[in-house]
Amino acid sequence: MGYFDDFQLLNVSRSRMYGESHPPLIRTPHHYLGLIQGEVILDGRTEKRPLVYLTPGGILTPGGWDSPPGQWRDNFYIECSGDRADRFFESFGAADRCRHYFVRNPAPFIALLNTMKKLFSKGTVRFAADAALCLEEFASQLERSQIAEAGGGRMAELEKVMDAVRCDPGADWDFRSEAEKSGITLRHWTRLFTAVAGMAPHRFVTACRLRLAKELLVSSGQPIKQIGVLCGFGGVSEFTRFFRNGTGMTPGECRKNQLR
User: Fold this and answer.
1) From the CA atom positions of the chain, what is the Rg in Å?
2) Pairwise CA distance, residues 161 & 147, whole Å
3) Worst-scoring range by mean pLDDT, 123-127, 132-136, 171-175?
4) Residue 205 phi, psi (nearest 5)
5) Average of per-residue pLDDT across 27-38
6) Average of pLDDT values for 79-88?
7) What letter would DSSP give residue 105?
8) pLDDT greater than 80 at residue 22
9) What are phi and psi of 138, to 5 degrees?
10) What pLDDT, on the 0 to 100 scale, is given for residue 1?
11) What is the DSSP-derived secondary structure letter of residue 104?
12) Cβ neighbours of 177 (radius 10 Å)
């Protein structure tokens, strides 16, 4: 198998559509990735901002978008399949549900969709490779767009999460749910967190747990097993491995050294 054989571009289409009431439910045969401009009804409100949408294959979903009566929307989209397409949709939180992302500048996405339309019409030998590269560039553009949209106000949200982890590093932290609260994918939330904290979320939790363990070993007389539980570990052996990897000594050795 060639390097780019894991992506199949099945169709490219562009149409200007008008308000449609109650589009029928369909089961999508393939992945749909597109850009909508114009007026679209989302959650009962009318949006005029351009949006990129991702509708994965194999789900039951309305067969189209709804616009106010008499208002138009421009729908430029591709149908695709393959492992590379699966990874793309999963990374943007659309593995099993439709997702949409507002974009400030639709021009880069239009350019990439136009390129894929030309490639699809020509069907050259290089078609598969060039189409896959277009998909990767589409992902890059969407990621940059999300980061730009997520800046500013989201920094305060991330600071609150960091403070919460510092206060209770032993908790079972579900960063996917934190990302969903912010309305962005886990992948992009992680990038923002790393930019603010200077390290990835799991490393931040590890650092906070290690700091708490050292403090409790030195300042409290609690049993090592109990300290391990407070730091998020179910047993002494698991806690000991974690502590040795982080400090080069066991919890017991750390406590004895400090007592001396």
Assistant:
1) 24
2) 18
3) 123-127
4) -60, -45
5) 95
6) 95
7) -
8) no
9) -60, -45
10) 59
11) S
12) 10
Sign, CA dihedral 131-147-179-77, equals negative
The pLDDT of residue 43 is above 90: no
Q: Are strands 51-55 and 99-102 parallel, antiparallel or unpaired?
A: antiparallel
Q: What share of the chain is helix, strand, coil (3-state, %, to 5)?
A: 50, 20, 30
Please name the residue that has the structure tokens 């992506």. Answer: 7
Rounded distance between C-alpha atoms, residue 243 and residue 260, angstroms: 20
DSSP classification of residue 92: T
Measured CA angle at 55 (ends 103, 148), to 5 deg: 20
Residue 34: closest CA among 100, 119, 123 = 100
| Spatial contact of 120 and 127, defined as CB atoms under 8 Å apart | yes
- Cα separation, 40 vs 173, in Å, equals 36
Q: What is the structure's pLDDT at 113?
A: 96
pLDDT band at 84; cut points 50, 70, 90: very high
pTM comes to 0.61
Instruction: Note whether 98 and 54 are within 8 A (CB).
Output: yes
Q: How many residues does the chain have?
A: 260
- The reported pLDDT for the residue numbered 146 is 72
- What DSSP designation does 220 have? -
Strands 8-18 and 60-62, sheet pairing: unpaired
The mean pLDDT of 52-71, rounded to a whole number, is 87
